[in-house]
Every structure is written in C-alpha cells, then in structure tokens.
Amino acid sequence: MTAQQTKLQELPLDLKRELLPKHVAVIMDGNGRWAKRQGLPRVMGHKAGVDALKDLLRCCQDWGVQALTAYAFSTENWKRPQDEVEFLMTLFQRVLRQELREMVEENVQIKFVGNLQALPTVLQEEISRSMEETRNNRGIEFTVAKNYGGRQEILQACRAIADQVKQGLLQPDEIDEAVFERHLYTAGSCDPDLLIRTSGEMRLSNFLLWQSAYAEIYITETFWPDFDRSEFHRALYAYQQRERRFGKV
Ligand code: IPE
Ligand code: IPE
Ligand code: MG
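Above: inputs. Below: predicted complex with IPE.
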C-alpha cells in the first residue's frame, strides 16, 4: 500500500472524531447522466455506481461512521424501461452474492429496508441469506433501501398499528412516536444524521421521510459514480460546521 493510500484510510485531520455523524444516508443519484456524459449506455452508470458504494462503505469503516444507508431502488423506479429495471435487479443480486463473504469477514451487519416481498424470488433469497449470515456481526450497520418508498413505509406501519387496535392489543392514545417507529422498516436503527444527495437534485424522492425529520442535508453536483473519499470528506466537513438545534435556541 502506498503512503497516499494509507493516508486516505485515516480520518482527515480537519475532521473531529467526536462530531462524526453516527448514521449517514445517501441518495445515490446521477448514474444515468454520468454514463451519458461519457457516451455510454445508462446501465454502465449503475455498474460504476456499485464501485462508488463499495468504496463509501469501506471509507465509513475506516473513518468510524457507525451506520450507512444507501437508496438503491425506489418504489417509483419500477416506472423505468423494463430492461433497465431488470439490469438493476440482476446487478444487485450479483453484487450481493460476490460481496457477501467479504462483508461477513469485515464484520458488516447488512440490512434491507423496503417492500422486499415484491422483489424477484431469487433476489429475496439472496437478501435473506446475507442478513442471516451477517446477523451477529457488530461492525458497521449497512442498510440497503431496495423497492423502498417512505410513504409506503408509513402506510404499512399504519395498517399494522390499526390491526393491533382492532384486535384490542393497543389503545389509540397509546400510539406515540416510539410505537410508530417500531413498525417502520428501520425499527431499532437510529435516524440519519447526515443525508447526502448527489447529482444536484434538491429533493427527497420518497426517501426516509419519517427518519429524516432532523437530518442535515448535503447536496453535491457530483454524479454518484464520481462520489469518492474526497467528496465524502467535503460532506463531513460541511456537516461538522452545522449547528444542529432540534428546535431549541
Ligand atoms: C440513480 O441514478 C440510480 C437509481 C435511481 C437506481 P439514476 O439512474 O437516477 O441517474 P440519473 O438521475 O438518471 O442521471
Ligand atoms: C432516487 O433517484 C432513487 C434512488 C437513488 C434509488 P431518482 O433518480 O429515482 O429520483 P427522481 O426521479 O429524480 O426524483
Ligand atoms: Mg436519478
């Protein structure tokens, strides 16, 4: 390993360890435009995007970020051309299979959020296997949002809670934030502190609507496949300059 590579593994000197976000969430956007810019088919952007995500996960481990959530496929992304959707499903399945061994060894705890039952069966099997095999890992918590929609997540929580009320197991006035959170896909995980979106778009696109209530938002013009350690460094630096007030003065 070169001196430069070793340096990249260490937390940059201008970042304060005690002020690192515990949980970083990323809306990985701009794969298609990245590919188009180089005269490549859109799907090549998704392929390049996988490498950017792998490196961000490793960077979070190196620098001490405890949880990373990545938006990989939204409930609205089914509206894309069928061949792109199929490519994304196959790519996801292949990467998961290829990377599982390493994630087990590196103590990564992998989780998935979204309507997983609607995914292809082979992919569901791969997802179950990876969660099962990393269940006892206590390193970074890596969550992939696949067929995820914030509104759908809130709706399914409402249905589950309504069902409990109907059965007499819960009173309406017992429904508080803690009860509600237990019915979200993210039950048991902390909310994101920093939410990054690449490609310059300034919207949430149905991502972690409940959980992002107090997330600090960072938007970069960079397309996702070009989001590297120096970009992440900039995002963390910007985050550390923010004053998080949570409604207080
Ligand atoms: C993000 O990149 C990846 C997914 C939504 C799966 P896009 O595919 O949205 O890329 P652009 O926004 O069209 O450039
Ligand atoms: C959001 O990106 C979804 C993911 C990154 C998986 P989109 O490209 O789908 O979002 P919109 O359509 O620009 O809002
Ligand atoms: Mg996009």
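The helical segments are 3-9, 31-37, 42-63, 82-105, 121-134, 150-166, 177-182, 229-241.
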